[in-house]
Amino acid sequence: MVEDIMGMQMAQLQTNYSYGLMKRAMNDAESQALSLINDMVAAVPAPAQYNFDVWA
Prior knowledge:
Blueprint: H1 2-43
């Protein structure tokens, strides 16, 4: 009986730990994606003031 309870508690602990690791990995991936998006947006030049191509 006690062994069953301990086993269930250990399984719950392992589940919570794996969820915590997964959440941390997802937060890291989210911050990396936001950083990449911000870098890409910063690399795009500003649009022309007038809506026609002056270099053509």
